[in-house]
Specification:
The protein is mostly helical. The protein has ten helices and no strands.
Length: about 200
Amino acid sequence: MYESKRPDAESVKAALPQAEQVVEWLTARDRTEQTIGASLGRLPGEREVRLARMADVLQATAQGLGPRAAAVWAGVPDHLLQQWLANDVDFAAAVRAASALASVNGLEPGEPKTPAMIRVVILAMTRGESFETASEVVGLSPYKLRKLWHASPTLVALVDAARRIRPRKPRTYVPSTYRPRRAGPKPPSTSRYRLVQRDET
C-alpha cells in the first residue's frame, strides 16, 4: 500500500528556516551576477554568462550528474546544452573529462544519492517542475526520492520551500540569440527577468 506520511510536523517546522535560506541562496544567482557586474559599472555580457553556465555544467558533471541534471544545475535549457556540446569541441571534451573524473571517484548519474542530486531536485522544483519530474531529472525513480522524503524533515522543508516560490512554468536562461520570435501581440512583461549586455558582433 502506498504510504504518503510526512515526517512529524514539528521536525519539519524546525528545519524550515534553514531550508528557506538555502532555497533563497539557490535562486539568487541572477541578482548576484547583476550586482557583481554593477561593481564594474556594467551588466554581464552574453559571452560571460555563457562561459559561466558552461563552467556550471562542468561542475555538475564532475559531481556525477548527467547532462539533463547538469543543465538544470547551470540554469540552461537541455536543448541549448546539447547545442553547445555539438558545436564546441573544447567544451565537449571538457565535459567528457569531468564525467571521467566523476566515474573514477565512484559517482555515476543516479547512484549513489548525493547532495548534488538534491540540489538539482530543489532547483528544478523552484522552476516549476513536479516532484516526479525533478526526481527523474537526476536519475532517481520517484519512489526512491519519496523514500528519502519520508525519512528526512530537512528534505520535506526544502521541497515545501521550493514549491512556495515556483512559477507556473519552468524558467531557465536562454540567450536572446537563441530565443525564437513569436507571431502575435507582445506578451505582458513580468517582474522577473535577466539583464545582460549584448555582445558586439
